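Case study B.
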Amino acid sequence: MKLIKKVLTAAVATAMSVGAAQAAITDNEVRIGYLADMSGGYRDLAGPNGLEALRMAVEDFGGTVKGNKITIVSADDRNSPDVASSTVRQWIESDKVDMVAGLVASSVVIAATKIMAGSDTLGLVNGSAASSITNEHCTPNHIHWTYDTYPLANSTAAAIVDGGGKNWFIVTADYAFGHSLENDVRTVVEAKGGKIVGTVRHPLGTNDFSSYILQAQSSGAQVVGFANAGGDTVNSVITAGEFGLAQSGQTVAALLFFLTDVHALGVKTAQGIQLVTGWYWDKDKEAREWSDRFHQRTKSRPSMVHAGIYSSTLHYLKAVETTGSDKASVVRAEMAKNQVNDMFTKDGYIREDGRMVHDMYLAQVKTPAESKNAWDLYKIIRTIPADGAFRPLSESKCSLVKK
Amino acid sequence: MTMIFGVPAAAFFGQLLLGLINGAFYALLSLGLAIIFGLLKIINFAHGAQYMLGAFAAYLLLHLLGINYWMALFLAPLIVGTFGALIERYLLRRITHIDHMYGLLLTFGLALIIQGLFTNIFGVSGNRYPVPDALSGGVNLGFMFLPYYRGWIVAIAVVVCIAVWFLIEKTKLGGYLRAGTENPALMQAFGINVPLLVTLTYGFGVALAAFTGVLAAPIYSVAPGMGANLLIVVFAVVVIGGMGSIMGAIITGLAMGIVEGLTKVYYPEASNTVIFLVMIFVLLLRPAGLFGKEA
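Model:
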């Protein structure tokens, strides 16, 4: 017993002395863990190509920080909060991972960031949509980079109501994400004097949407909004086209619509749909140049999530270099001190709730005549300025926000 | 406006028709499963993957070789069916003498491998397959807008279902098939090549799944996961109809499409579960299924 006590005391003492020496890169390595859906429904959104974007960031940074090697490990979260929790716990406790990148499904992110909270590991959330990640689920150990549901609902719905689409019918995925998106849209539409004339809630992963489309069509609403995601949105839009919603004068609004979804549908089916995106590969010269390099490696164009992974990783590595530390609290503070200026955004900044605030874009899917190739998919209609794009801190429920 | 259970009559009939169209998919898929189970006693868990292969075969034929929908309707089932026959010949045959559970595991494993391969190659977002020109557009029926293509699905599905039923229940070849599974040794003694018959039957069941996949390609996203969701529902349909009953599978498929369609109007949240509720009631009251024979 005495021996165990001695060993324990020694271990605690060592641990404390390591803790005291803050400005150091532990284990002489900066270890990045990439946690994402690599095989399920969100695979194309982040997946293997997101890992490639992460590798690009590490290579562009030079592969080392102050002579310390940067290493990458990756894992498939299988869209399961349980898998995510155990993976992140192992990464923190035995693999000494310093930063977790990727982080896609909202449920996975909420579980993973709970484990990271209070540790020395920082999470950079890029794939996830839920705005609650920097609201009621905020922690000092993560930053939410690319986008969230707040601008999706606000900007898309507001733009369409302003354009005259007052009466809405919403087709909602029947789970937390869909409900919150539906509520956000309802708030915006009603605040602007519009009306929700009907909603229908479908189970996640529905095979056939014709019944819901028919209900939307016979509702007589001017706008049919889809508050769902991924394969459900793709199949909703296909069926809306098949039943001629646009021909009968209804506007289709996909509230969460990714480049990969539009690519899967093709411009013939998706043309004219308005959406909000955090980034677009063809938005300016810098974005195009980076996308060309990405395209050479992956044979596909990057989504906003891929770009966010690259941008957030570079910003992280710069902060590690400046502080000479890979401790989450130190790096997190340094990251917030500097604005983000890269191919992703200009003058982006990190708020106390962990939200990286940057310009968002209202885009419209091009027509077949306008689109020059398989990835030439969006025209940017207008820029949504950073201030006002995301939920204001005055409405925040995050415990880190001082009021 | 006339109302039926609180829903305008027009909307009600529209939903009834859409339910029937989805039912046609269930009927075609459960028909293939029922044939395979009835004659081979294999629970074919790869059926959803084979349906997906049919859709992808059509997609690849169009994009790589420029072969149109009408040709694909024949070619895709032929290609995927041949693949199925090879699976039976070289894999399933090795385990026919042991517990049926192994057939289930083998086909389930195959389904996972096939889906995984396609996910790796094509991603999960899916691909678009255009509606053939002759069937694009639709007609206003007064109570709803019916795309021509959906009408075509019901028509062709009913024709194929009846033809298959006729083939198996009313022709000499069908007679051999049924006899071959009842008493293979006796049939062999009569000079019938039973193993070949079994291979062809499995191939035919798989071809039916692929045919359904081609039918689905223009209206759903052609994606590696498209069969996985559907398969469980279709199994429930087969259980309700009675394992191995051909007519049972067809009628139950259409009926369950309608039940699900109406649920989407009255209580959409339950539309994914309603078929399983029916399944539980049927199992409690008639364990062999509505059209099955008690063992």
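The interface with chain B takes residues 39-44, 47, 174, 200-203, 205-208, 210-212, 214-215, 217-218, 230-231, 234-235, 238-239, 242-244, 248, 260-261, 263-266, 268-269 of chain A (CB under 8 Å). The remaining cases will be described in the next quarterly update.
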